[in-house]
User: Fold this.
Amino acid sequence: MTTAADTPGLTTTRAPFIEAAQAAGRLYIDQPYELYSDANHDVWHRLYGRMGERWARYANEKFLEGIRTLQLDPTKVPRLEDVNRFMAPLTGFRAKAVSGYVPAYRFFDCLRQREFPTTITIRDGEVLDYLPEPDIFHDIAGHVPMHTDKAFADTLVAFGECARAAAERVSGIADEHERLRVLTSVVKAMARFFWFTVEFGLMKGATPGELKVYGSGLLSSYGEIQHAIESPEVQRWPFQLEWVVNQGFEIDHYQPLLFVVDSFDHLFAEVIRLVEWVREGRLDHVAPGEPGISEADLVSFLEAAGHA
Ligand SMILES: [Fe+2]
Assistant:
């Protein structure tokens, strides 16, 4: 006899449904809502419940507005179709369920089409605090409320344009070795920009000296959201594009260095500069170091450039 405790559910790294989709090569999937176990819903409830007071203190106003708009049920894993019903009329963005990692070009190209690849599994209740891979709490509670804001949504679309510009940039390079070298540099720059803004960005608050969080890695972390704003160990600098694209980062500890934008209009202007820099070749030689760029990511760009 099976009991509730035996139900595999949709737990990160332990979901047979996801394993089957991956084995069949299916990246875009449905959200089989009935497979969530009571334990999965309980984890959502605990994660969501404890973030409320942290968001009220540290999150930027657009995020709080987004949370109110989405009307998520605090006690249950959200249905993507419910989320999309509230979000799509505002910015055209939709959460799109995926079975795992989306290679970089395809990920950015989804953003260009206002689709957000969304993980549907949820972390194990034993590891509420730290998880190296994204889960539905990170993707829906951390990212998606920001997608209800027009300037932020436009910024994501511009990332998609940036990926296209990168593919175009390398499509004309005949020498294979040079093509890969340039591509690695440009994708590294894009990954750093994404990391220090969409994932870990800070923004000026309403009063002088006040800082608020808009990065999803922070918005979905009970510990780091406070650390990012309060800790004297964190360096916080005004956003500088030439610095950000050359700045490495590590993903397995709290971030020691964060960048502050003035507003979402400012962020949008910076991503447009990023696209221009790709086209002008200014990202062809960024500083080496983290993050490493995987072969799957490079191949995804080469395919788009007609070279794979
Ligand atoms: Fe993320």
Notes: The longest strand covers residues 94-98. The mean pLDDT is 95. The CA atoms of residues 105 and 163 lie 6 Å apart.
